[in-house]
Amino acid sequence: MLSQSPRVRAAIIGSGSGTNARALCAYAAANATGFQICLIIATKHDLGIVDVAQQFGVPCVICADKASFAEDVCAAINTHNIELLLLAGLLRHVASSIVATVNGNVLNIHPSLLPKHGGKGMYGLHVHQAVLDAGDATTGATVHLVTNEYDQGRVIAQAEVPVTQGETAEQLQERVKAIEHQLYGPAVDKFCGELNQPRSSSKTPLEVA
Ligand code: GRF
User: Active-site positions?
Assistant: First the structure.
């Protein structure tokens, strides 16, 4: 059940530099969004995403222990009454118990145009190198629902980035990240709109130019 609050209570979870977390916090702070960032969950102390939590005054929980990861994340979600979980560079498996704790409301951002270049082991520079190796003219970013299978959930939003001839995977990653930062906030908002609407509502993926 969603709370009576007009804004969905969201948590961001990640293992990295936190640039998407920063963009999400800034977007929710600056706009009349349908969600608010109420918690950041990190997999280590010394991560950029922890600094983002401090910068925005968002409570932060560290779930470092691999053995109890799912249990610890579920406990944090329950303690903070979280309704929506937003993956932003999480390098851990998302157990079905975590997905169930937020009633399936788990989103991820992936740095390619899914279904291209997704699946187990496809993260970070591996994705961008695969795009270059395939000779794709276009790549981009995808926000999608998280299910039991890696990168297979319904697409909520996509944005395209043209591939430049001769660029490195690092350069491509930087350009795709810039579009990720524009895509994720509006995509989360769109999803929150779906949560508050009858089941018959439109489910067309959002496109960001
Ligand atoms: C992003 O490229 C995102 O698409 C992927 O992980 C990366 C996280 O980067 N899932 P950051 O920590 O948000 O900078």
Answer: 110
